[in-house]
Amino acid sequence: MKSSITHGVKILSTGSAVPHFSLNNQTISEIVQTSDEWISTRTGIKERRLLTGSHQSVIDLAILASRKALDKISMDPSQIDLIILATSSPNDLFGSASQIQFKIGAVNAVAFDLTAACSGFVLGIVTASQFIRSGTYCNILVIGADVLSKWVDWSDRSTCILFGDAAGAAILQSCSDIENSILNFQLNTDGYYSSHLSIPYQDNDKPHAFLNLHQGSFKYLYMNGREVYKFAVSQVPLSILKCLNSLNMSVNDINWLLLHQANERILNAVAEKLSISRDKIIANLSKYGNTSAASIPLALDEALQESKIVDNDIVVIAGFGAGLTWGTIIVRWKEFTLG
Ligand code: ACO
Questions:
Q1: Which of 154, 263, 267 for a ligand 1 pocket mutation test, highest count of atoms within 8 Å of Cβ?
Q2: Domains of the chain, each with CATH number or no CATH
Q3: Which of 338, 319, 337, 44 is closest to 168 using CA atoms?
Q4: Comparison of pLDDT for 204 and 126, the residue scoring more
């Protein structure tokens, strides 16, 4: 039932999951011509987890992460009103969220996929917040999950070294406006540059003989690394500053900078542009590589487990990636204790 009161949004719980199989830089150098030294210095990545074996999909990781988030707060899945699965590697083009809804027993939830690559989790949180602030829904599960290992060309050394598979989840709940955690957000898209980062659909050469209708399939991930680097380093700081300015906040108010874990050099360059100390950067990409929509919730979940983020900390979260799409969320962290 929709109400006219504006509600606050709090992040009640997080969870994450990574596959067991770990591929380090040394082993990748046996697959393509590269080295630990090249990968480490250019990206900061040391190893990544890959979803190997048959019949395993993004859904398995998403379910694990979601169950962990639910278990932490002993929430019954039937209390979830909405599930948003941010992924660009579904195992069904019609969407994978409904399979998660069924498998975790979220019988009262509507579920849909959201496709925005590495910015997917940020867009998922913003979308969920709107449903909560308007009073439409009370409990929302937002999942960021990707298995890009299924879409990279394992003979292309410029991309296969970068990505890993993972899932992260967050449960958002309605609260009083005073307790609101999601202070502000700022989102952008510039489709002119969409070809810099893409998993393009391509028609087969031969059309259907009678209908002149082409059918095709999706190809491998393509990335223009240099252009993506320039875009991230120039646009992400601007988005963060815009978001801070509209709250009358400054970079000095930031306790933690949680960026999409694409590349250590991007993280450092963004922090440097904003004059933020490197000690405030949350980074775990050396262990997992770039896990696309999962990277922010995975890093958030780890930072909370390590008790880095504490009550009332200002956490600036920024996603960027294919689209090109990028954006920022400013969170005042509120610790949740089971009553
Ligand atoms: N090992 C060894 N050599 C390599 C490798 C590799 N894995 N990959 C590329 N090279 C070679 C290239 O062939 C090239 O050789 P050449 O000069 O003889 O032609 C040379 O290294 C330089 O190649 P560049 O692609 O120009 O390398 P660059 O210094 O730009 O680094 C990188 C590549 C790390 C991808 C960089 O462009 C980058 O950080 N881009 C940011 C994009 C990013 O992080 N994307 C992640 C996904 S997108 C997202 O999440 C938003």
A1: 263
A2: 8-178 (3.40.47.10), 182-192+221-332 (3.40.47.10)
A3: 319
A4: 126
Query: Which residue has the CA at smallest separation from atom 13 of ligand 1?
Result: 158
Residue type, 60: D
DSSP strands (E only) in the chain: 8-17, 21-24, 47-50, 82-86, 110-114, 139-146, 166-175, 182-189, 197-198, 201-203, 216-218, 222-223, 256-259, 314-321, 325-332
Low-confidence winner among 94-103, 232-241, 242-251, 328-337 (lowest mean pLDDT): 328-337
Query: What is each CA distance from 279 to 84, 255, 333, 335, in whole angstroms?
Result: 32, 9, 18, 22
CA of 242 to the centre of ligand 1 (A): 30
Cβ atoms of 295 and 164 within 8 Å: the answer is no
- Joined together, the tokens standing for residue 61 give 């990781």
In the predicted model, what is the mean pLDDT of residues 262-266? 97
Any idea which residues carry the catalytic annotation? 118, 260, 290
Q: Whose CA is closest to atom 32 on ligand 1?
A: 225
Q: How far is CA 108 from CA 79, 98, 135, 140, in A?
A: 7, 12, 17, 11
The three-point CA angle 294-300-303 to 5° equals: 135
Query: What's the DSSP call for residue 324?
Result: T
Q: How many Å lie between the centroid of ligand 1 and the Cα of residue 229?
A: 10
Q: What residue owns the CA closest to ligand 1's atom 11?
A: 158
- Two tokens, residue 190: 């510039």
Contacts of 178 (CB under 8 A, 6+ apart): 8
pTM of the model: 0.94
Which of 34, 48, 226, 326 to probe ligand 1 with, by most ligand atoms within 8 A of CB? 226
| Local confidence band at 338 (pLDDT 50, 70, 90 cut-offs) | low
> Which ligand 1 atom sits nearest the alpha carbon of residue 159?
35
Q: How many Å is the Cα radius of gyration of the chain?
A: 20
